[in-house]
Hints:
Blueprint: H1 9-17, E1 35-40, H2 47-62, E2 66-71, H3 84-94, E3 100-103, H4 123-134, E4 142-143, E5 149-151, E6 156-164, E7 167-171, H5 176-180, H6 194-221, E8 225-229, H7 243-246, H8 250-261, E9 267-271, E10 278-280, H9 288-292, E11 302-306, E12 315-321, E13 334-340
Amino acid sequence: MRAISKFAAAAAAVLLGSALTCPPATAQDAGADSFSFAVIGDTPYGDAAVASFPSHIRDLNADRGLSFVSHLGDIKNGSTVCSDAYFARIKTDFDTFTHPLVYTPGDNEWTDCHRPNNGGYNPLERLDKIRRTFFARPGTTLGATMPVRSQAARGLPENVQFTRNRVAFTAVNVPGSNNSLDPWTGLGKSAPTPEQQAEVASRTAAVIAELHSTFAAARQRKDRAVVVMQQADMFDPTWAVTWNEFSAFKPIVDALVRESNSFDGPVYLFNGDSHVYNTDRPLAAGSKWLDFYSEPGHADNLQRITIDGSSRATDYLRVEVAPDGVRGRGADVLSFSRVPFAGR
Length: 344
């Protein structure tokens, strides 16, 4: 999944300088009621999981209290073919959601498709196929229709933002495998190619612009919280990572610290990738990740939530959003519970 790579400092400067380009989101719901949404990811992995995935969708559909569902990417495991037929099958499953579905791609469905057991594809060609298959109607969700503001004009229809009950949401394409900078060894490459580096620089700049736009709109509206959703675990606690394995995440971490510090409220980062449910504050004062990413500041208000995935994808994370105003006073804006799928 990850290999040694470096991200040029000059590229990071370009990325940070391009962060002021995305227009603000528009409010979907100004009501004061509480609401709920679900988060899944790193599923389905393997034949058995693919077979049971429709039943998981039925369980989510049966949860009538959900306003939407978020899939954080990795719609296949890292050892199976990234075929058009497989993408079409998952799209057919996604079409059965009766809730709006917000999907952001993971590394397994494009970044890692250079691997021989994945079909030896050019990852950028697979990313284009993902966009044409799952994001053919920019500005709306999969499943039930919910309007979202997308970065389709920048060529990234998967990057979206929306708001509900004074909570700002954004989903951004930040995959594992070092934000897609790991060399395409399956295609005989021992270092990132020029086209690969250009894609990483362009997409990362768009992600930073999306974060800036989301936070700027949240500040303007005086939103209660900001929610960021992506695939990559940039603070993986399950193994000892090295700088060269996570270097391409630094501009995004920089942006999260900067934007969180400018927002007077909680920030929630949902990710998949490492498969083990976890909640922590990786950018709070004293965190080892501040040294790892050479962050001069810290973001105590950012809480990270990693969802279950892979063989542990036997539940969905149900997120309760407290009501706005007096009725929600004293409560955390977001609270979480893991709901087992039926028969698990």
